[in-house]
Amino acid sequence: MTGKVKTFNKQKGYGFIKPENGDDIFFHYSSLIMEGFKTIDPDTEVSFDVEDTEKGPRAVNIQRV
């Protein structure tokens, strides 16, 4: 899937992605695939996979496009 980062809280390490279609999807910084300190700015275009968890859908394997 693809979408844009809607929000990211650097202190708490999580945020939400707005996919091209559908509801916002939660993500944790540990799902960001990048070198160094893991942070990402709002409006960054990303590709990702969706994993179903007991708390709902979660974005994983997140990469900038």
UniProtKB/TrEMBL annotation:
- Localization: Cytoplasm
Q: Which UniProt keywords apply?
A: Activator, Cytoplasm, DNA-binding, Transcription, Transcription regulation
Principal place of residence: cytoplasm
Name the Gene Ontology molecular function terms of this record: DNA binding
The record ties this protein, via Gene3D superfamilies, to: Nucleic acid-binding proteins
Q: Which InterPro entries match?
A: Cold_shock_CspA, CSD, CSD_CS, CSP_DNA-bd, NA-bd_OB-fold
GO CC annotations? cytoplasm
Q: Which residues form the CSD domain?
A: 1-64
Q: Which SMART domains match?
A: CSP (SM00357)
Key word Cytoplasm present in the record?
Answer: yes
Write the protein's name: Cold shock domain-containing protein
Q: Which organism is it from?
A: Candidatus Caccosoma faecigallinarum
